[in-house]
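Entry 12.
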Amino acid sequence: MRLSNTHGYGMQSPTVSVVIPALNEERNLPHVFAALPAGLHEVVLVDGGSVDRTVAVARELRPDVVVVHQTRKGKGNALACGFAASTGDIIVMIDADGSTDPAEIPLFVQQLVDGADFVKGSRFSHGGRSDDITPLRKLGNDGLNLVVNVLFGTRFTDLCYGYNAFWRSVVPTLGLPDTHLPQPADGSKLWGDGFEIETMINIRAAADGLKVGEVGSVEHARIHGESNLNTFRDGFRVLRTILSEYGRARSRRDRRAPIDHQRVTTESRGRMINRPAVGAMSLDLNTNTRRRTVADRTPLHVFED
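Predicted 3D structure (C-alpha cells):
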C-alpha cells in the first residue's frame, strides 16, 4: 500500500518522526526497521544504555537513523528524550521488540490529518487484538481502563498500550519530566520516567482538552528477549498515576484556558499545510514484512473529551 498524499486536494503531507526506545534489542531491530514505511522524515532510536550491538545494528540497517542516549533510566525518560530530539510534524512512538506493527503508522497519521490532536492504538477495539497479553494483565487493564473512563469522562478502550501518535506541538501539553534533571542518587526513577508514562500521556491528552482518537492495533508477541514489565508492580504504579493525574486535572481545571492547546495545534498544522509542497512525504509499506493488511483495521472516529 502507498500513502502518497495523506492530505489530498493537493496539500502536502506532514513529516513523520518515529521514536523507538531500545535497550539490548539488536536481534529485534532488523524486523522492526524492515517494516517501517518508506518516506519517513526520521527514525529516532533512543538507547537506554545497551550492552549489546543495538546502536551499531541500528546504524547498519539505517545509516540516517538519529541515535539519542537517554539521560536517566526508564521508558518514560527514553520517550521524553526522543520527543525532544524529533523534528517532524508528527511523532509516532513504537516499541523495539517487534510487538507494535510499523505498518499501522499510516492509520495513525490519517486520523491526525483528519483533525485529531492525539491518536492511541487499541488492542481491544475495531479489529485490534493482542497475541501477548496474559489473562491477568487483561483483567488489570480492563479495571484500570474503567477507572479512567469514570474519573475523566473518556471513552478509552485500551489505557495501557504504548502505540501512540500526535502532533509535535502537543509535547508541551504532556508535561513530561525535564530530560536535563539528574538521576536520583538512590537510583530510583523520577515520576514519569517509568512505564507509567503511557498512562500519563493518554490521560493528559484527554484531560487537557485535546481531540483524542483511537485506532485498532495488533500487539504481537516480543520476538526475542524478555519483557521488563511486572504485572503487580507496574499495575500499582499505573493506578497511582491515575489517581495522581485526577488530582492534577482538578487543580488545573479552574486556571487554564480551555482553547489554548487547540489553538497551538491548529496554528502548527496551518503552518505545516501552507508550506511549499516540496518533497511531500510518501509512505510506502513493505508488503513482504507486514503481518496484517491496513485495510483490516478500521480507525475509531475521533472523539473529544
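Annotation: The radius of gyration is 18 Å. DSSP finds nine helices and twelve strands in the chain.
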